Amino acid sequence: MTKLAQTKESTYLLGTPARSDHNFKYGEALMHLVKGYVGTGIFSMGDAMKNGGLIFGPITTFLIGMICLHCCHLLVNSAHMLHKHYKLDRVPDYADTAKLSFKLAAPEFPAWAFVAKLTLLIAYKVPLDIHSIIALVVIPIWITCLIRTLKCLAYLSIIANCTLLTSIAIVLYFAFTIPTSECPAGLLVPGISEYAIFFGQSIFAFEGIGLVKYKVLILYNEMSEPEEFYETYGVLNIGLHMVTVTYIFFGAVTYLQFGNDIKETVTLNLNTSE
């Protein structure tokens, strides 16, 4: 078999075995995938629905989720094709998949790769010195870097998912117990400019788009039953549908509750005295 160890720029396939000793199962992989896609961006989905409306908002959110799912399947399939084409020891990771794909691409295509940089989103400007931010995150990052296997990280993903689920449950509790605000005008169909804002908010809310692309192939390679990752009822399909439905439901419920008074993050609408 051809090994990428023959090239100096190889990053991953240096004759490593096809499977590690720390393979994990369906549920553990699902926890990693859900944690990668669901973050604090979900709390801005109510404001996103205000701009997108309750007709086009859920439809567009569902389409974004399905596009993410399709791209993940394309990534896995591309890695498989490159694995067979180059006769590698194992399925390549994201970095090697990208590198080998560009080797097979037309010469003109890589020249336009800089365009991808223009699509990066700038989120919120935090009025905090960069050194303070580094001091706050360096110890947690250092501790998590000591964990060398995804199987061990699966337990942290479970804890993180439970914490996030608790936060969502608290918000929904207030949404269902506080008297509903007056039905806002333009509830169903937004204007063009508002819809453009909604689209940007939805992409930002799916914050795993930039993260999970690196994790997909790692999850696949580390599973004890790799076919469970991409099959019909596999980790990818079930996980992405769960995430998409959660985003749509949470955004619609919080917008219906708080109407046009909803804040950029719905937690600002909660009664802090309770």
Automatic annotation (TrEMBL):
TM region positions: 54-76, 130-147, 154-175, 195-214, 235-258
Q: Which GO terms describe its molecular function?
A: L-amino acid transmembrane transporter activity
**Alphabetical list of InterPro entries matching this protein:** AA_transpt_TM
Q: Which GO terms describe its cellular component?
A: vacuolar membrane
Its topology with respect to the membrane? Multi-pass membrane protein
Q: Which UniProt keywords apply?
A: Membrane, Transmembrane, Transmembrane helix
- Annotated Amino acid transporter transmembrane domain ranges read 26-273
Q: Where in the cell is it found?
A: Membrane
Protein's recorded name: Amino acid transporter transmembrane domain-containing protein
User: Which classification does the entry list for the species?
Assistant: Eukaryota, Metazoa, Ecdysozoa, Arthropoda, Hexapoda
